[in-house]
Amino acid sequence: MKKIGVFTSGGDAPGMNACIRAIVRTAIYRGLEVYGIRRGYNGMIKGDIYKMESHSVSNIIQKGGTILRSARSTEFMTKEGRRKAYEQLQQHGIDGLVAIGGDGTFTGANIFFEEYGIPTVGAPGTIDNDLFGTDYTIGYDTAVNTSLDAIDKIRDTADSHDRVFFIEVMGRDSGYIAIPCAIGGGAEIVMIPETDTSIEYVVETLRTGWRRSKTSFIVIIAEGGEAGSATEVAAKVQQALPHMDARVTILGHVQRGGSPTAADRMLASQLGIACVEGLLTGRKNVMAGIINAELVYTPFIETITKDKVINPQFIDMVNILSV
Ligand code: F6P
């Protein structure tokens, strides 16, 4: 292997830049040429590809977003799109790829590998932490800390006004962001897609709290749950509790930005190195991850099809700690 390409795809995540930096520098350290592919699979299709040097990744370790830009490509989902992408890689002489992204990215990488066989190793880059094959994904720790910071501020005003705040966090269809936000943010209730929390339970918990002289409440709602969005949950609860003074905050894309935490920079650097070393030792069609402090490589197909189960004890913790 002589020339590798690196790209970021799907939703951006803090720490992606630290990972790009580690990949570029490890490749150069190992005597490889390294090419940046802009805007994920779209850039691969268009041939938006440039040679990267060590200085191309100077002063980016602390920056949020991704210097390679990102996109969710519909064209790459077609056979024709993937053929164009392959031709571009051939033209540039790229014989190995590093993909930084989440389940959509690895779904594409898996199909591409089956069709064209270009060795690809992935780094898990998503705030959702929903990939099997790693304890944590790059960007998750930062997103949780960003959310917690916002929740702390909401708590101040909730307390001043005796209000119930319904706060929606991201996660697509996973509760990984919601759980530490609820435990660390001292929430009374957490609702995640993986478990059923009924509106009746929310109503009862609030009533019980008021009886115990609690005056303000934080309810954390992960997007993607059956009960609906924070706005919908709040409206349903309000019907049963017309006197409740409620507000809804959707944290949204603020969770995707910002400077990565130390934990994310460390993880991104470790996994960036592991991706290049993986390619050099013949790994293909796998994602590098850290499980119990050990580096592991998991086939893409497993990272996207196997469930990463949330420990139900975390839900109990929210209940116990808000008594
Ligand atoms: O996968 C990361 C994520 O931020 C999810 O938590 C969220 O559901 C989705 O991306 C939002 O996507 P977009 O930025 O395309 O609106």
Q: How do the strands and helices of this protein lay out in sequence?
A:
Blueprint: E1 3-8, H1 16-29, E2 33-37, H2 40-46, E3 49-52, H3 79-92, E4 96-101, H4 103-116, E5 120-124, H5 140-161, E6 164-169, H6 178-184, E7 189-191, H7 199-211, E8 217-222, H8 230-240, E9 246-250, H9 262-280, E10 286-291, E11 294-299, H10 300-305, H11 313-321
Parallel strand pairs: 1-2, 1-4, 4-5, 5-10, 6-8, 6-9, 7-8
Antiparallel strand pairs: 2-3, 10-11
Bound molecules: 6-O-phosphono-beta-D-fructofuranose (F6P).
- Lateral arrangement of strands in the main beta sheet: 3-2-1-4-5-10-11
Give the rounded overall mean pLDDT: 97
| CATH architecture descriptor text of the largest domain | 3-Layer(aba) Sandwich
CATH topology of the largest domain: Rossmann fold
Query: Strand share of the residues?
Result: 15-25%
**Largest sheet composition:** 7 strands, mixed
From the alpha carbons, calculate the radius of gyration and give it in angstroms: 22 Å
Name the shape in a single word.
elongated
Question: In angstroms, what separates the terminal alpha carbons?
Answer: 59 Å
Q: Give me the secondary-structure category.
A: alpha/beta
> What is the succession of H and E elements?
EHEHEHEHEHEHEHEHEHEEHH
- The level 1 CATH classification of the largest domain is Alpha Beta
Hetero groups bound? 6-O-phosphono-beta-D-fructofuranose
Number of helices: 11
Number of strands: 11
**Uncertain residue segments:** none
* Overall structural domain count: 2
